[in-house]
Fold these 2 entries.
Entry 1:
Amino acid sequence: MARSLNKVLLIGYLGKDPEVKYTEKGDAYCKFSLATTETYRNSEGKDIDRTEWHYVTVWRKLAEICGQYLKKGSRIYMEGRIRTYIDPKDDTKKYTGIEMTELLMLDSKKELSSGSTETAPGRIKDESSSNDDLPF
């Protein structure tokens, strides 16, 4: 049995276009923000929306797929884990975010393709789950 669990499940909308970059070793990565909104009723009976912003990092082939198919406003289901990113220059905490390991695009094929004849893949899992070669 696992001694602990670090798993995040989110459904939300991208706050900006993912931008794919590459490490010095040639590994693809991209970052984007994801908005999730919950609605609750306050004491006066008024519905209130509360939006949380999540900062997502994606690696390797999954990063390239995100760069190809996702854009600002895309609706996705994602799985991942919470990560604290460290600045390697001075070993200080940089920020806490989510490392995506699985993706399911929830937009219609028409919205995803935006004129392209390609069809977006379904649920995609990062098969390279080893973090041994990541630069942090």
Note: Residues 60-69 form the longest helix (10 residues).
Entry 2:
Amino acid sequence: MKKHLILIFCLSAFFLPSFTQNLVLEAYIAEGLQSNQGLKQQQLEYSHDLMALREAKGLFFPEVSLNARYTVAAGGRVIEFPVGDLLNPVYSTLNMLTASQNFPQIENEAFSFYRPTEHETKLSLVQPIISTDLIYNVKIKKDMAEISRIDVERYKRELVLEITRAYYNCQKAWYLMHVTDTTRTLVDENVRVSESLFANDKVTKDVVYRSQADQALVEAEYAKAKNLAETSRAYFNFLLNRELTTEVILVTETPQPPLLSLDEAQETAVQQRPELLQMKQYQQMNQQVTKLYRGKNVPALYGIVDYGFQGEEYSFTGDDDFVLASVVLKWDLFKGMTNHAKVQQSVIEGKKIEEAMNQAEAQIRLDVINSYYGALAGYESFLAARKQQKAAAAAYHLISRKFAAGQSPLLELIDARTSYTQASSSVIIAENDYFIRMAELEHARGSIDNNAFKN
């Protein structure tokens, strides 16, 4: 019996926090930030928006295109040119004056509007000179890219929190399984002692039955604990995109009470939470959209230059080339007041964003309050659980010696063992729940530094 008491006391000491920093968890977080599939999708979205920004900037550069056309035509309009009617009277008069036939009569001409064959090959250059659409389009795309970048950071922060939760839940489940496993050893010993006492006529048969029933109950609890440990490990590995059965290294830490004040935590959250930063970016983008619609009243100016060759046959000589240079002004003077309506819609959207920001700030402050007091309560629960465990361990130690000597009933021993097991489990639960609450507090105040976990 004493051997098994030493075993459970050593196991309990192992469950008590060590004074080492949990570098293992930090390594797991870094691995998760590198391999998580959901994060990779968010990063692809950000890359997509960066390419959209590059596309918008590219619209400021001249557009150069090569256009080649060869046409074969038949039919169509016929243009009549009365050259005979115009010149024949003059020629007749000249023949009379000169007493000759030097000026013959000519026929009227007729020719098709479309030439039978024609080609045009040219280079066209279009250069925006003044265009408010292009200017504000770049600014909007830039804001959208920044919003996507913040989305990536938000996902990273959520992933850090989720990995941390999963780690401590995994640690909690596996330690609870080991406590139950150790309890199995104790109840097995109780069955052996009960049978020995019954054999020596010191107890009745019901004591043996009761110890065997307690043994079966602990076996069922162990099966549940093992199932929880396996599923929690699988979920943790899923977050890291690893094989679901990969072993997880568990390292305990020293619970420390929150040292920062509530006001400090709230102010930090208001300054650093990515949700507010993202909404400010939305607000800035909305301002650019409003300016974009208002800029529709400003005319757009483009420069266009064409250089190429024309003719009925393909020929690229100095007699066939041409150059056209144009300045094109486009000014939308009236479009049924639709642009004014768009401006007003954008202004209203800006007011909605402002109201949402105020609500988000209040929600963030509430999150910090809940997380802060949750962490304080978690630390107090841990201290209370540890005191309860020490008392339950001492009680179980005394009663187990009395039972071995036949001086204490089995029910008292079972009750002491149950209290000790529950107290040990409470320490594990309270300790790991406290670390989860501290992670939630750090997340609520926006102080998780993703760069700290980069390899």
Note: The longest strand covers residues 117-130.
